[in-house]
Each structure stands twice: as structure tokens, then as C-alpha cells.
Amino acid sequence: MNVRTLSLVAAALVGISQAAIAETKIGFVNSDRVMREAAPAVRAQQRLEKEFEKRDQELQRLAKDLQSMQEELERNGTTMADSDRRTKERALGELNRDFQRKQREFREDLNQRRNEELASVLDKANRTVKQIAESESYDIIFQEAVYASPKIDITDKVIKTLSEAK
After folding, report:
1. Is Ribosomal protein one of the keywords UniProt gives this record (predicted)?
2. What is the mean pLDDT of each run of 10 residues along the chain (166 residues)?
3. Which among 3, 17, 80, 140 could bridge 84 via Cys, Cβ 3.0 to 4.6 Å?
């Protein structure tokens, strides 16, 4: 093959690939933003806050009790009788263990419920993205990108659709 034929073939291939790219409809959705701003995500967060509010207040009360016992022991420990000081130290240790256990259980329960709620929201978001992709003939929609042009960003559309759905 001569150089001229090779150049013509290369130009034809470039033209074909550019035409194929031009026909491809690409979209981008910022899933983090959807999970923060969409109405189902906001409602899920509010449900979690309401569900765990009393336990959180109880933990805060326990932390204050623990701190006041610690301060009292530090302030009066040197003037207390040995038996009184040991009794207070034991009570402080028990309260501290109880607080640590309740705090750990609270975090575990909260994380489990948050994961359940987020899985539900994520499922709805994925169905919404798929619905938009099919109705508007997108070939591909990316969730992660180093950069995405605002022209292809459909995040607002996803948030709006999710917020309108019940």
C-alpha cells in the first residue's frame, strides 16, 4: 500500500469514529448530591434523626453524669475516706463501661438503619436514572467522573424526578 491509500483509509476511519461518537448520548449524575438533596434522602435523614433522638439525648445525659462524677472525684478524692473513694471509683468505672457499651450499640444501630435507608433511596435513584436514560435515549450515564461538562449533567433532573415521586 502506498502512503496515499493509507492516508485515505485512516481519514475514513477517523470520520466514521467521530460520527459514531457524535451519535452517542452521554450523561452524568452526581450520586453524592442526589443522596444529599433529593426529597427521599432528606426524608430518610429526618426519620433517622427522629428515631434515634431519645437515645442520643440519653447518651448526652450519661456523658454529663460521667463528667460530673469524674470532676467530683478529682476535687474531693484526696479528702475522702479510702472506702468512699474506692466506692466512687468503682461507680465511675461502671458508669463509664455502661456509657461505652451504650455508645457502641447506638453507633452500630444507627449505621445499620442508615444503611437500610440509604439502600432504599439508592434503589429509587437508580430506577429514576434508568427511567430518564430510557425516556431520553441516553446511551450511557456515568456516576463518577474527574470532570463532567454541565451540558451532560442530569443530576438536577434526577433530584427533581425523585422529589416529585411519592
Report:
1. no
2. 54 53 85 93 95 96 93 84 88 93 96 95 95 94 90 94 84
3. 80
